[in-house]
Amino acid sequence: MFASALLVFFFLLVILLIVTATMSLKIIPQNFAGIVERLGKYRTTLTPGPHLIVPFLDRVRYRVDQREQVVSFPPQGVITEDNLTVEIDTVILYTVNNPVAATYEIVNYIEGIHQLTTTTLRNIIGGMTLEHALTSRDQINRTLSAELDAATARWGIKVSRVELKSIDPPPTIIDAMEKQMRAERDKRAAILTAEGERQSAILSAEGQKQAAILTAEGQKQSAILTAEGEKTAAILTAQGEGRAIETVFQAIHDGNPDQKLLSYQYLQTLPKIAQGHNASTWIIPAEVTAALSQIGNVVGSIPTDGGGSRRRIDLDEPVVTESSYGQENTSSAVEEAIRAAKQAESPVSTQDQPPTDQPPAV
Q: Which intervals of the chain are annotated as region Disordered (predicted)?
């Protein structure tokens, strides 16, 4: 009986030792802090790692997470300066720097941060118009972060960043803003289109102006060169005709022709007149009959042997171009022609010509 009681006592002692050891040994994880209270009063703060405390007197009241934490608050209705209600939801990033202050200075620091965020946000947005609030998120974030950091410093909390997730105006305001933005975009598009058309018209006009100027310059140069060419051609043609007339006139004077030669030349021209397409009927002037009678008398009085060269020309014989031979033949032929002309002219009398009052009909 005594042995059984001793065994039970030993067993209870072992259990008591195990419980005491368990209550004495505390292990704090990394980035956590343990708040130790002795008989309901703050005693110490445990850092990460194993620790021994007095069992039944000390206990770890709170374990505070010192990592950076993120808390998102639901949308809150805020009234802007122009009396429009918008829904704004925020995200807060904070860190507990002082676990003791976060434990004993406030009951629930998360709720405190939430309420501070709502009131501070209403103060900031209340001084802005809707358009200003929509375009000033960075300014709102910085102001709200500074206000929260200053308010939560005595709680041992450091607010590192505040972000506005969304700013939602009423549906009617959103529709009106979309219409306004659409109108602004249409206006800018119309202005840009008009500017583009104006620039295009200006450039086209400048191009046409330059093209017209260059075309006029080209036509001017072309007209000048054409006029210069025509002037030079006319001068050269006139000079050539003048030289030809001078040469012919000088040759005529050097040859000293008489009326008979001129009549003969006139008669040679008549066949050329008759070769025309419309020359079905033509009239011979009275002077032509006189010229014919004179030519006839001259031809009748020319002797059969005129004293010319009797040398037969061989068509297959090569042409001789020696100057001496040509000069001798030419001089002898000229002398014979002059002598024959004098013999033919002496027996001709103009009194024996028939009257030529009326031109013969052809």
A: 300-362
